[in-house]
Amino acid sequence: MKDIKILAKEFFLDRNVTDIAKDLLGKIIVSEFNGKITTARIVETEAYDGNVDKACHAFPNKLTPRTAVMFKEGGRSYVYLCYGIHHLLNIVTHAEGDARAVLIRAVEPISGIDIMHERRKVKNNRDLTNGPGKLTKALGITSEDNDVNLFNQESGLWIGYKEEGYDDFEIITTQRIGVDYAEEDALLPWRFYIKNNPYISKK
Fold first, then answer.
1. Which helix (H) or strand (E) holds 117?
2. Which of 2, 20, 25, 173 sits a CA distance of 20 to 30 A from 102?
3. Taking Cα atoms as reference points, which of 173, 119, 84 lies closest to residue 129?
4. Residues 93-121, buried b or exposed e (16+ Cβ, 10 A)?
5. Residues 6+ apart with CB under 8 A from 8
6. 81-111 pLDDT per residue, tens
7. Could you tell me which residues come within 8 angstroms of residue 49 by beta carbon, excluding any fewer than 6 positions away?
């Protein structure tokens, strides 16, 4: 774990949410729950903006018990239950009062893979984390991890990077998945993934 450096809070606060979504590619999610440590590299993301984006839970700047965490200062987790089955991990961005977030759609397992298999009950490595609901189960993330500080190693869930870098990849930009209800905003090119990575959720 010493080779993984934690991202500073400022990473989550500046720039457009789409730029942050792209910059999160290659970064590493670290989870440590009940003494079980897993790490995985982010390979697919989607951006959401509560100011202008009908696909965002907080549109149009709608503060509810569910979206309250999105209005807090960036750098924290927004974990919600989708269809009453899958927990999805989002990373809140920007300043307090500005509801924007990045959905983590897929990750590439790095360490603790045996733990991921135990949690997911699948044999194929590729199926471990190639989807937003799959990755949270593999990493042990639940609704209890909502509103967690992601730039604090003591939180049990944080985002980091390796100093030698992991940036020799091409980013593919396309439309988001499963947001047809957002009308014209469903066409926004706000999904980003690492080209040819075997763990992306959908080509």
1. helix 113-120
2. 2
3. 119
4. bbeeebbbbbbbbbbbbeebbebbbebbe
5. 151
6. 886 788 999 999 999 999 999 999 999 999 9
7. 17, 56, 59, 99, 100
Measure the CA–CA gap between 10 and 25, rounded to whole angstroms: 17
Structural tokens at position 22: 């792209």
User: Hey, what's the torsion of the CAs at 6, 11, 12, 13, to 10 degrees?
Assistant: 140
Percent of the chain scoring above 70 in pLDDT: 99
Count of beta carbons in the 10 Å neighbourhood of residue 66? 14
Nearest Cα neighbor of 173 from 150, 158, 195, 200 is: 195
**3 state SS of 61:** coil
The number of residues in the chain equals 203
Distance from C-alpha of 134 to C-alpha of 45, rounded to nearest angstrom = 14
CB 158 within 8 A of CB 151: yes
Instruction: Count Cβ atoms below 10 Å from residue 86 Cβ, excluding itself.
Output: 15
> Can you give the pLDDT at residue 126?
85
Indicate the range of 88-92, 116-120, 152-156, 173-177 predicted with least confidence. 152-156
- 192 is written with which tokens? 């980003």
Angle between helices 132-139 and 113-120 (to 10 degrees): 110
